[in-house]
Amino acid sequence: MKKQLTVLAIMATSLVCCKQQKNDGPAYLNPDAALEQRVESALSLMTLEEKVAIIHAQSKFSSAGVPRLGIPELWCTDGPHGIRAEVLWDEWRQAGWTNDSIIAFPALSALAATWDKDMSALYGKSIGEEARYREKDVLLGPGVNIYRTPLNGRNFEYMGEDPCLAGKMVVPYIQEVQKNGVATCVKHYALNNEETYRHTTDVDLDDRALYEIYLPAFKAAVQEGGSWTIMSSYNNYRGQHVSHNKRLLCDILKGEWGFDGAVISDWGGVHNTLEAIHNGMDLEFGTWTDGLTMGKTNAYSSYFLADPYLKLIKEGKVGTTELDDKCRRVLRTIFRTAMRQDKPYGAINSEAHYAAARTIGANGIVLLKNEGNLLPVAGNVKKIAVIGENAIKMMTVGGGSSSLKCQHEILLLDGIRERAGKDIEVVYERGYVGSVLKEQDGLTVKNIVEERSSEQLVEDALEAARNADIVIFVGGLNKDPHQDSEGRDRLGLELPYGQDALIEAISQVNKNMVVAIVSGNAVAMPWVDKVPAIVQTWYLGSEAGHSFADVIFGDVNPSGKLPFTFPKVLADSPAHFEGKPFPNRGKTYYDEGIFVGYRWFEHKNIEPLFAFGHGLSYTTFEYSDAKISRQTIRHGGKLEVSVKVKNTGDREGAEIVQLYISDKESRLERPEKELKDFAKISLKPSESKTVRFRITEDMLKYFDDAAHEWVAEDGDFVAHIAAASDDVKASLDFKLQ
Ligand code: GLC
Asked: Ligand 1, residues 486, 488, 489: which to mutate, most atoms within 8 A of Cβ?
């Protein structure tokens, strides 16, 4: 007995010791210590040089830790759609590793088109696990810049024209990525709505547009998503670079919104030491270059927040208060990621991730038109002619920093052939030559060099079309320069490479024609009345061919809705109205104000080609029994609207019910109506479900820029329940008192 007691005593003592030992060590090493305690503990031990070292890059994609204290470096990676291939220490060139092939998930414009928060959560979980497995601490995405013009080269990376849609869709992505101990870096904060002159554009706009249109998705990312980092954009706002813009970074982001994380500059976005010190820049990347190309090698000690900053401190010209604040934010990020111990281990190229990419893609595809129910491909079809370069063009490569080296990419033609099997003959004709780039971003693009003349290509395409039961034209844009690409905006709304003429010609020889547009942007469709079926099929990533075939052959009933308006002509768009200059090298004033996207088209009574929120199904839905729980809502109160939706077709399908609200009279001008909520429901044939929306006072507010506050004015409002912004099913009046 005595012996046992002795053993127990020794064990208890050692336990206390190691517990103490754990507590004895500095708090920053104790994973159980509170975050702020760890931050203060680390900060108190760091030298001045170590503090300056952790607030700027040490390589192309990493910033220093504190080796002496065992505080690890912070590793960032692009991008919003998948984990970028490893590059060399101080170069953009691929490092040529053999373990960094990953999955390319659908572009975020496709995710937005699902209008499905569960899809966003699935996306964030999947890409977060891939980032974690690749041992990255910060994922440089997602992007939520508002779709102001259809010419912006990077719209494919963003979530559309409406702040409510983008704001609700970005939150689950962030939350799920960060569960892996990987920080999101929501970008590009803010007003980066065009590419060509993104480094020099100087944006100005009224506060109503700023607060009601361009900031809400970022605010949701910070306050609801809890994003641990934010990327500042290249452009200027009111004459000051956003990377050290007092109003955007200090007053709004960190002041009004209470952001406690780190502001990471876009690569090369910092231009001034004193401004970067005082105006909220926390972690400087990509300097001494124009952000992307030339510059001194290994110039990291020359960064604006490196030696120049240290020198100012040592000369007593600036204090260390700002330095400590920057370090606290960077240390907070390190403790949330690199030094977080209860992280999962992630995974890459898993069946689950491929399944996620495939289902997100299929749910994002938007059926724009389907006259005579040409789609899905009918059972009696024996021969399909697939025409168009985008059926064979790799789209996971190119487009700038979101370019990916993926394990495989199922091209659209691959997907069609696989699904058609041996019962249906599939012939392919390229039809035109567009992109002949053999490599993009250091990655070889599937060799699609062509020998035939363009006349021969057209002739061969028409011949194939003539002899097929159905033609699937796969065109659109690609990620070549001036298409959907970072750094260069599109040159016009039209389809490139003579596609319009080819589509017209094909429609003459075969009426059974589907046009599939691969793009992240709206395009003009002069042939829209000559083609029975049109599908917006985005950049869908590694599983593109499978997602596309799932919808075209009817294995998945499309439910996607447009996250942005398709204008008939460019001049109808608010950013190009009456010949406004574009792109904008210097000062540009967003004089359309809050009237962006459908807000503009409805305000100006311009009919779009396809409206925001539009998307068809292979079944039909009937809306009935719209109700409102009360006729008045008090300040601080709420009410409920509901509607019954029935699947009146013969196959299961999902419908996205949209809630818009109109303010019938207001002191300041407001849009006709604004999206305030949405819900996706799946219904079997003949099944009905009731969809309910809660309306709160906040949803009725507009931003009074003179008073600098959100106000909900007493008076009459209308709740519109809709299947699209131009397809209102029921309108219910109510009053705010
Ligand atoms: C690029 C992009 C940004 C990207 C960064 C790193 O300039 O604007 O989105 O994350 O540099 O590649």
From this structure: 486
